[in-house]
Design goal:
Strand order of the largest sheet: 1-6-7-5
Largest sheet: 4 strands, mixed
Number of helices: 1
Low-confidence stretches: none
Radius of gyration: 27 Å
Oligomer: single chain
Structural class: alpha+beta
Length: 141
């Protein structure tokens, strides 16, 4: 009879130990997942800054080369780009990261115009830049 009670006590102790282990592991796992999600958002923002700066820098280069100059560049959009626009010498990429929407802005001395609107998937984007004389036309290729 006592053997049965010992088995029950051992099983109960085992369940209590498993409960304590889960009480420590689950919060640590949630903390880790939260941290990795935050880092992924920071990486997306950095990649968007690089993409916007590349477009702005290349537009300035094409503007300096004079009318008729053209170039196709490839930039890497991160996941979360919802829109892109050109206005008053600014390249603006709208991105959703870390649960919020923000605009990533890069400036250029060139007068830029064109159409980069619309949601784009993350990845490599071919962008065509053409000097039209007074402005640089920027569009997807």
């Amino acid at each position: 009879m006592q053997s049965g009670c010992m088995k029950g006590q051992a099983a109960s102790e085992y369940l209590v130990m498993i409960g304590f282990a889960l009480a420590f592991i689950v919060p640590l796992a949630l903390l880790f997942l939260s941290f990795s999600h935050s880092e992924r958002g920071k990486n997306s923002i950095s990649a968007a800054q690089v993409a916007a700066s590349t477009i702005a820098d290349e537009a300035g280069e094409i503007f300096l080369q004079g009318e008729g100059a053209r170039k196709t560049i490839v930039v890497n959009y991160p996941d979360g780009i919802t829109n892109a626009k050109l206005e008053n010498g600014l390249v603006v990429l709208r991105i959703e990261a870390d649960g919020r929407t923000m605009d990533i802005v890069a400036s250029t001395f060139a007068n830029v115009s064109g159409n980069l609107s619309g949601k784009r998937t993350g990845g490599l984007q071919k962008i065509k830049l053409v000097n039209m004389g007074d402005f640089v036309n920027v569009s997807y290729d």
